Amino acid sequence: MSKKITKICCIGAGYVGGPTMSVIAQKCPNIKVTVVDLNQARIDAWNDADTNNIPVYEPGLPEVVAEARGRNLFFSTKVDEAIAEAEMIFISVNTPTKTYGTGKGMAADLKYIELCARQIARVSTTDKIIVEKSTLPVRTAEAVKSILQNTGNGVQFQILSNPEFLAEGTAIEDLHAPDRILIGGDPTEEGQEALNALVDVYANWVPRERILTTNLWSSELSKLTANAFLAQRVSSINALSELCEHTGADISEVARSIGTDSRIGPKFLNASVGFGGSCFQKDILNLVYIARSYGLQQVADYWEQVIIMNDHQKRRFGNKIVKTLYNTVSGKKIAFLGWAFKKDTNDTRESPAIFVADDLLNEEARVSVYDPKVSETQILGDLNYLHTRSESKNAELITVLDNAYECCKGAHAIAIMTEWDEFKTYDWEKIYANMTKPAFVFDGRNVVDRKKLLQIGFKVYTIGK
Ligand code: UDX
Ligand code: UDX
Q1: Segment 249-278 mean pLDDT
Q2: Can you give the pTM of this predicted structure?
Q3: Which residues contact 234 (CB under 8 A, 6 or more apart)?
Q4: Is 279 a catalytic residue?
Q5: Which ligand 2 atom sits closest to the C-alpha of 16?
Q6: What is the rounded CA–CA span in Å between residue 451 and residue 421?
Q7: Which residue, judged by its Cα, is nearest atom 9 of ligand 2?
Q8: Are 161 and 218 in contact (CB under 8 A)?
Q9: Would you say the C-alpha torsion 143, 307, 19, 212 has a positive or negative sign?
C-alpha cells in the first residue's frame, strides 16, 4: 500500500520544473500541483494571461499550461506555504558547475539544493516525500537526508531520486511518452512506500513496465551516465567529421551506414558545431570530478576527452571561417543564423554560438545575429558573461536583428549555428544577391541543401564534408 498523493510542490520553475509539473498536473487532475520559485519575474511570466508568454519556449507547452493552470496547476513565489501543504516536494533548482573554491569548473554547486533542504526542514510540520529532480552527483541524497533529519521538526522525510530525461524542444512529447521513468529509493519499508507513491503518480499516464525502480545511488548515477553516453556519441561523430574533411568521406553517409546497425542505432549521429545545453558539459565535468575524487584517474581522463573534443569542434569551426575568409575577418560582417543550443528552444546555455562568436569578435569581426526565439538581451548577456571584453565593446560589435534577410544583408559569410527548420525554406537566391561576394555559407548543423546553394553561387562549407 502506498500513500495517495493529493498535493505536490515543486521548487524551481525552470526548463525542467515548469514543463514537468505542467504535464503532471495535466495528467493527474486530482493532484494539486504548485510550482514555486524565488524569481518573481519568472513566476509572473508563468502566470501571464497569454500562455504564449510563459518563460520557457517549448512546442505544445502553452496548450498544456492553458489546460491545467488555475484548475490544479499553480505558479507562486509563496515557497513556505506550498512546502507546508504538500505531501510530496520536488526539488528542481539549478545545479551549475562551481565557479569558486574546491572543484571550481568541475563539481556541481549544491548550494541551492542545500538551501532548499534547509527551508523544507524549517517549514514542515507533516511527513514529506522529497524528490530530487535536479541532476545531482552520486550520494547527494545522503546530504539532503542528513540536513532534513538533523534540522527538522521531528517529522519524517523520505528521499527519492527521480531524474528527468526530457530533451528541450521535445519536452512535451518526452513527458507524455517517456522511454522510461526512473525512481530510486531506500530499500526500507518506508522508502519503498514513498517510492510506490511516486510510481502511482506517473502510472496515471505512463505504462507500469516503463517505470523503473532502483536504489538511490543507481538512480543518481544513471542520469549522469545517460548524459555522458549521449554526449560521447556527439563527440565521437564530431571527431570523425574532421577526419572526413581530410579523406573525402562524407559524415552523413558514414552516419547512415553505421546507424543501420541495430546495435548502434540511427539517433544522435548528427555531426555539428558542438553540443551545448545546460546538461551535457556540466554532468560530464561532474562525473570526471567524482571519478578523480575516488582516485580513478583513467576513468576521469576517459570521460574528460568528450569535453576536450567538443571544445575542439567549436574552436575548429571559428578557425575555419577565419582561414577561409583569406585569414582575416577584421571589419568583416559575419551573419549568424541561430543562437539557441538546438532548435525549438529559447535556451542558450552553453550554446556553441556563444563561443564561436567570441572567437570571431577576438578577430575583430562584426557579428549580426538572427534567432527566431532568442532575444537581444539574452545574446548580449551570454557574451558579457564570458568577460572577454567590455560590455560596451560587445554591444558595439554585435547586432541582433529580428529578420534573417536583414541579418545576412551585406555579409561576407553566413554561419548556421542552430538547425531551425525555417532556414531550409529561405529564399537563398535573394540572400545571395544581397551579400558581399564571394558569398560564403558555413553550415554548422548540416541543415541547408548544399547542392542548391552551390548552384546559386555560394561557397559552402559543411561540417564533415
Ligand atoms: C535545473 C538543473 O540545471 C538541472 O541539472 C536539473 O536536472 C533540473 O534543474 P533547469 O530547470 O533547466 O535545470 O534550470 P533553471 O531553468 O535554471 O531553473 C531553476 C529555477 O530554480 C530558477 O527559476 C531559479 O530561480 C529557481 N531557484 C533556484 C529557486 O527557486 N530557489 C533556489 O534556491 C534556487
Ligand atoms: C539532454 C538529454 O538528451 C536529456 O535526456 C537530458 O534530460 C538533458 O540533456 P538537451 O540538452 O535538452 O537534453 O538536448 P539534446 O537533444 O540532448 O541535445 C544536446 C546537444 O547535443 C545540442 O546542442 C544538440 O544540438 C547536440 N546534438 C545532439 C548534436 O550535435 N548531434 C546530435 O546528433 C544530437
Answers
A1: 97
A2: 0.94
A3: 268, 270, 272, 274, 275, 280, 310
A4: yes
A5: 7
A6: 18
A7: 279
A8: no
A9: negative
